Amino acid sequence: MRSESLMQAAFRELEEETGMKPAEMLLIARFETLSVEHFVSVADFDKDYFAPMPLSEITACKWFSDDAKGLRLTTDSELILRTFRKDIRTI
Q1: pLDDT exceeding 70 applies to what percent of the chain?
Q2: Residues whose CB is less than 8 angstroms from the CB of residue 19 and which lie 6 or more positions away in sequence, other chains included
Q3: Mean pLDDT of all residues in 56-66
Q4: Which of 4, 47, 76, 77 sits 20 to 30 Å CA-CA off 34?
Q5: Quick one: pLDDT at residue 86?
Q6: CA-CA distance, 14 to 34, in Å (whole number)?
Q7: pLDDT > 80? residue 2
């Protein structure tokens, strides 16, 4: 929606695509690859949440450790995780 802020869109997208409602979100970075603009955020939740549900155009989602082995990530997702791993752990 054009009238919403970047963070309003992030809250809405997270809920629409996973069913999860964060108490807070913090934008930690914005960067571009050749064809995609990425916004990296961390979210805080008031209570323990159930496993995220794949909704909307999402086909699968789950919690995972950032050092989990064997994840099949896109090149961009791998770059995001590698780049922001230290930042995410300290927030």
Answers
A1: 85
A2: 52, 53, 55
A3: 79
A4: 4
A5: 66
A6: 24
A7: no
Structure token pair of residue 46: 């008031």
- Amino acid 70 reads G
Q: What is the largest CA-CA distance in the chain?
A: 40
Q: Please give the structure tokens belonging to residue 19.
A: 């069913």
Q: To which residue do tokens 């809920």 refer?
A: 15
Question: N- to C-terminal Cα distance for the chain?
Answer: 29
pLDDT at 21 over 70: yes
> Please, are residues 25 and 80 in contact by the beta-carbon 8 Å criterion?
no
